[in-house]
Amino acid sequence: MHAKHEQFSSKLGFIMAAAGSAVGIGNLVGFPVNAAKNGGGAFLLIYLLFVVLVCMPLLLSELSIGRSTGEGPLGAFRKVGGSNKLWLLGGLLPVLTPFMIGVFYTVITVWILGYLIISVSGGLQQLAQPEYFGQFINADNLIAYQAGVIGVVLLILFGGVRDGIERTARYLMPALFLMLLGLVVFVLTLEGAAKGVQFYLQPDFSRISIDVINGALSQAFFSLSLGTGVLIMYGAYLRKTDDLPSSGRFLALADTSVAFFAGLMTIPAIFAIYPDTDPASLSSSSVSLIFSFFPKIFMEMVPLLGYQSASALAVIFFALAFIAAITSLVSIFEVPTASLADETPLTRRQSLLITVALASGLSFAASLSFGKSQFLTEFVSYAGQMKSFFDVLVDLFYDTVLPVNGFILCLLILWRWKIRQLSDELSIQPASQGWLERYTAFAMVWVVPWVLLFVAASTIHSKFF
Ligand code: TRP
Questions:
Q1: pTM above the 0.90 mark?
Q2: Does residue 331 line the site of ligand 1, with CB under 6 A?
């Protein structure tokens, strides 16, 4: 049988591409900040439990249903769900979700590219000024950086699955990992880093609350690119001869390790440079951390290393963040692009151009919601707070929709696809069932849907009411 979509060239190629999607801003910023302010080792433990007990079964299910149907989310829901229109709606959400995530993800990637370029051209000192970030995000030349980001995304996605997504990830992901390890080793040799390590890893269970538990699950979903159609799509690009369960295991391990190491880099660096840091002060906004905090940290190293070397460290750091962001962004736009090409007579190129053009327009609007446009800055108000357009996107598509999408997929699998077919798909290669495959079949009935239902309901309650 001829596969409808282009496929990854090997299991390794798939793993690299999927890791490129998974490892992103969520790992580098979201995880360390969440862990630091929500009980350190206690958060880590909850996060790990979620990854193994809830995310792994869903991750394998998404890959399986994608590979079995050979379709992206829309096609998979249609093939498995049948004619009922409600299932089609269920398949539309995992196409819309990455598109909307792409809108705010682009905004942050544009900032990262800006900071990378400025630190390459010797502007570290400028970046470290207290007011700089606030001015930067409203500066007119942001549009040039946005054009740069869009250009890179288009370039990679024009190459297609194998020559674009897979090839980029094959080179960039190992580079990212080495840079990260290098920075971790460097940070851990700084005086005072031990206090940060202790803070990062020491469990403080008193900080655990329902919101923290929900936050840990949202973080794990976002980080693994779960609940968004990416893994269904990538499953369709996975060859039948490749070992699916072991790929999934490796993917989860790689993603979680990067998150863990990012924490081991970030938190001790902050404590080494600012020993009196109050962890509560990290809570304001996690994204602004890399922009307002990190340049200052690198500037503080100037007396120790000299301006050149401190700038070099900054360049490595922002290059690392840019690689992480761009390989994720590519996966985010692949889903709507491929879906549009599948569902309409448009070619892949046309679909790509339409998707990216629409998303960049919206993303440009989102970038005005930090003061430039009053309408977008004070967009709506709910739960007693004024929210900007950007905030709304994050609240909806980062915190809320992912568990909802996951839950709908559980329903599709339980009612229409049946656990039997899931198990069959999981044991094509290798032919025998390990504990993970057996746990997946069990958890998709008795664990995952219930946890997701609970988390989705309580997140909606606390975010919007
Ligand atoms: N996982 C990425 C991160 O941690 C973000 C990401 C990539 C993503 N692809 C996605 C999130 C698809 C949701 C959906 O930053």
A1: yes
A2: yes
Mean pLDDT by 10 residues, the chain (465 residues): 78 92 92 86 93 96 94 94 88 95 95 96 94 92 95 94 92 93 92 88 87 88 92 92 92 96 90 77 65 88 92 94 94 94 95 96 94 93 90 89 94 93 86 85 95 91 83
Give distance in angstroms: CA of 28 to centre of ligand 1.
12
Quick one: DSSP state of residue 353?
Answer: H
Distances (CA, A) of 345 to 181, 339, 342, 437, 450: 46, 11, 8, 38, 39
Element (H, E) at 381: strand 380-382
CB 32 within 8 A of CB 266: yes
Contacts of 324 (CB under 8 A, 6+ apart): 23, 24, 25, 27, 28, 176
Cα(73)–Cα(212) distance, integer angstroms: 30
Does 219 contact ligand 1 (Cβ within 6 A)? no
Neighbouring-strand partners of residue 381:
386
Q: How far apart are CA 409 and CA 90, in angstroms?
A: 8
Contact call for residues 35 and 215 (beta carbons, < 8 A)? no
How many other C-beta atoms lie within 10 A of the C-beta of residue 181? 13
| Torsion sign over Cα 342, 76, 173, 240 | negative
- Between CA 291 and CA 115 the distance in angstroms is 8
| Residue 230 CB less than 6 A away from ligand 1 | yes
Q: Residue with the nearest Cα to atom 13 of ligand 1?
A: 225
